Amino acid sequence: EEELSRSSHSNPGKSLVNGIKTNPASNSPKSSLPVPMGPPVYVDLAYIPNHCSGKNTDPEFFKRVRASYYVVSGNDAANGEPSRAVLDALLEGKSQWGENLQVTLIPTHDTEVTREWYQQTHEKQQELNIMVLASSSTVVMQDESFPACKIEF
């Protein structure tokens, strides 16, 4: 905060974002700041952003966010959810981890995209120690039923 405060006083109209000086007037919604490189983040469970849409997720996400479990929730083929490119990005990103940690992919819907990806890349998944979890349980709530998975940590 002190650094941000000093920067704002010494350079009116400029501020620090992630340690990078910016000019708020020049930041339009289309421009984005480069994300500084850093060590990867290890988490138990990560939800693949935006229903596994290719709009927001690329191999860099999987290089930097290393999860034991990734949830794929997309079920809208018309909007490209889930995206085959994102599923492929998981393979590409994981291949650069340098360690063979077990990863479990949890699709919340059975879609044609995930089935085809699973079948076409099964050998690569095994090589990278990636398991795709299939649901064997169904939850019924009110008038709706859906597949469910239990994850224990």
Automatic annotation (TrEMBL):
GO term, biological process aspect, one: regulation of microtubule depolymerization
Regions of compositional bias (Polar residues) in chain numbering: 20-31
Region Disordered: start-end pairs: 1-35
GO molecular function, one term: microtubule binding
GO cellular component: cytosol; dendrite; microtubule; microtubule associated complex; neuronal cell body; synapse
InterPro entries on file: MAP1 (IPR026074), RibonucZ/Hydroxyglut_hydro (IPR036866)
PANTHER family given in the database record: MICROTUBULE-ASSOCIATED PROTEIN, MICROTUBULE-ASSOCIATED PROTEIN 1A
Protein name as it appears in the record: MAP1A protein
Organism (species): Bucco capensis
